[in-house]
Amino acid sequence: MPRAIVRSAPLLIFLAVSMAAFGQYKVELSAPADVKDLLVDHLDLYRWQTDQKVTPDTLKSLIERVPQDASGLLNTAGYFSPKVEARLDEASTPPRVVVTVDPGELSRFSQIDFQLNGAIDDDEERVARLKERLQDNLAIKLGDPFTQSAWSDAKRRVLNSLQSSRYPTARFAKNEVKIDPVAHTAIATLIIDSGPLYRYGEITVEGLTRYPEFLVRNRIGFHEGDYFRRRDLLDLQSDLEAQPQFGGAVVEALPSESPPYVAPVTVRVQEVPMQRITLGAGYGTVAGPRGTVDYAYNNLFNKGWVFDTQTALDRDTQEFDAGITFPQQLSGYAHRVYTTIKRADVQGLLTRTDKIGVTRSMSEIKNSNGIDRQITLEYLFETRNPNDGTTDTVHSLTGNYRWIRRNFDSQRDPHQGNLLQLEGGGAVKGLFSDQTFVRLYGRGQQYWPIGEKGVLIGRLELGQTFTPDESEVPTDWLFRAGGSNSVRGYDYQSLGVPGIGAVLPGKVIATSSIELQYPVYKQWRGAVFADYGGAAEDWKALKMVTGVGAGARWISPVGVLGADLAYGIQARHYRFYFSLGLAF
Predict the structure, then answer these.
(1) Given this structure, which CATH class describes domain 199-271?
(2) pLDDT tens figures, 363-398
(3) Any bridge partners for residue 323, and if so which?
(4) Can you give the pTM of this predicted structure?
(5) CA distance 151 to 2
(6) Which superfamily is assigned to 9-102 in CATH?
């Protein structure tokens, strides 16, 4: 039986003086490592030890409750015959509570009785497969230690597995565990009633006033009469919430309580306005002030087509984009046609680019991560003035495939995970193109947690364009390096092929970076980094340069914003990088 040793009588005066002086008490716990954290995390004795309002009487009450409270906690971990003692150290200042715990022998499962009853018994083949799968989901076996959390999780997994497909009203007919504290055994009984087999009933759409109903209907991948699957409902809800016409969606299926056993489906959507305009202003250390104007119309020709334009202006670049995005197909693919006009003056190279193209893309999103795939067919016409008095014109019909995988623990502030981007594309001479070329590109970024809140970030970028004459290849299909997100300590796109008064793009690129971020104050982190890389005509001509520096990071509600001071070792100069944008 649990017992406690409490000594308090003539010590109340001493205790009162000590607690008044120090306003707290100390706890010394002697217990095996596998239960120590459980007791420290949940005993009231620990929770109150720094509270300035604790009186001698309160402390006495806390000590008296320790054996009962600790025994209850140990029971949840499978120890049903513990011995717990708690006493007050008379000579210690501040007061010291000594707790000694002997948890006893751990109880283990000696018998597990699992039964599945109900309408599912009518399908002998299915019930045999299902019982085998549910037995795996139960995840407890004879001889395993009993813990309340493991038992609760096992029951939940089994019931959820059944309720998620065909049997949404499944319930526990009996679930209990009998503990023998002498033999240290646990006998578990779990009986589940599957309830009736359900199919989908009528599918109703609610909440539409601005947009045509087919925008919702075309996203529904199941039909009336199909077997009920909870995953269908969750997928549809996520899919609708991702559509630009809707700000939210709720998909519900309420099973009927009497025959015929169907689950009518109600889809409720929250519409957004048909038109949206967004103005933005910001400042960058590379190109100075920047302004943007974005416009979108979400129901072109009453077909749910999204027409959008983006205009961006800064000191070096002026760009206008317009396009139409068609509703996503049930397969997950979306299509877009677009046109772009861009003028850029970077490192002495003035370019004017006109594009028209079409993309086919698909995003496989899971828990805010996933894989993006995009195929692009684009016709491009470019005029280049490399600041030497000459003018070049280039035109190409290009095809490109891009694959991006994101796997982070947090999209806003990742500490663990990685990003991988791979691309491949090119053009064929004579097929609306001046030159044949193939471009391959890859970029990876890895996050490793350091301590509780620090993070180490590694990045690697490689690319090459294969062509007999790069002068007839569009600038976007070649490479320059330097600047933020590349090699810090050097000007933006200043690493490439030296020309007369300009830096021209090359056929190869290789950059890498290692950065350590560590917490300094609340949402602020300090950073130290080293970047290494460059771009050139070919690998033989590639001269890698190094940039090192330090910076600060602010973990804002929208993401990580930062400022860096970097020193280019070969260039022998400092560069400051900072960007801050405000949308209104």
Answers:
(1) alpha beta
(2) 876 555 789 999 999 999 999 998 777 888 999 999
(3) 308, 338
(4) 0.75
(5) 25
(6) membrane protein fhac (3.10.20.310)
